[in-house]
Amino acid sequence: MSWMPISKDALENEIASQCKDISDEELAYFNKIRVPLESVKIERWGNTESGFVVAKVGATIIFYEDIEEGFEITELNEQGAISDYGASQFTLQQVINQLRASTS
Asked: Which residue in 7, 23, 27, 68 is deepest, having the highest Cβ count within 10 Å?
């Protein structure tokens, strides 16, 4: 089976599912920084692919890394693409709390 990028609808469903498992305080914070899913270029291994930004705080974004099937925190590069990120499989709750801790 070959890898296929996540669709916008599938990601909306994943976010909705994970929002059921977070506290009211975490959900309130996420709703404050959440953006409509926004397509973004991801530079991977010399190729340019696309993904989705799900939240923003200043220059920092939360995006879904669909190869690892998890959320990541990073900043966009000068070209407005994602080029620096990990290979983590964080849940939405984990990245919300990481971002809250780093901005408080």
From this structure: 27
